[in-house]
Write a structure and sequence with these properties.
mainly alpha; two-stranded antiparallel ribbon
């Protein structure tokens, strides 16, 4: 939708320009949400074809190649290869994917609660990410924590700033 500009008769988009940070967060949320839902659907499809047997074979192969990393991966694969483990992973992927899409949608449509939804949803897992990092120090875990902490800080600051500007305008 477009509307006419007030001052010079120009045609302007009906939505305000978004900050680059919000655009990046929206892109991340839409990409992650879509990808997680695709993985969940594929996992359900593969469960019918006996994926758990193939996963156990892969875990056994990893166990025989005695690097510490391969034994750890083999243990993770073995735990996930049970029907219950596969359904747990599928439900977690679907739930996280759906939530990420709702977060992206709320930011895209400029809902006042959109930034707060992302702050609460992403911020609630930060303590768990710290615990996981302390137990197993990995660069990937540190990167996930730093990205999510930056998203939470950015959107909380933005939402608070917009709230205070709205309060000033209504006074």
């Amino acid at each position: 939708m477009i509307r006419e500009g007030l001052d010079s008769g120009r045609i302007a988009p009906s939505h305000p320009r978004r900050e680059r940070g919000v655009v990046l967060i929206m892109a991340y949320k839409f990409a992650k949400g879509g990808l997680w839902l695709v993985f969940a659907v594929l996992l359900v499809a593969f469960m019918g074809s006996g994926i758990h047997d193939r996963m156990l074979e892969a875990a056994e192969y990893l166990r025989q190649h005695t690097g510490a990393w391969s034994i750890e991966i083999a243990q993770l694969v073995t735990r996930a290869a049970t029907p219950r483990g596969l359904w747990t992973v599928t439900i977690a992927l679907a739930a996280d994917g759906a939530l990420s899409l709702v977060e992206g949608w709320a930011l895209f449509h400029g809902k006042w609660w959109g930034p707060w939804l992302v702050v609460v949803a992403s911020g609630s897992f930060l303590p768990l990410e710290v615990i996981a990092f302390v137990r197993h120090r990995r660069a990937g875990r540190a990167a996930v924590f730093l990205i999510n902490a930056a998203i939470v800080a950015y959107l909380a600051r933005k939402a608070l700033r917009e709230r205070s500007m709205g309060a000033r305008k209504s006074s």
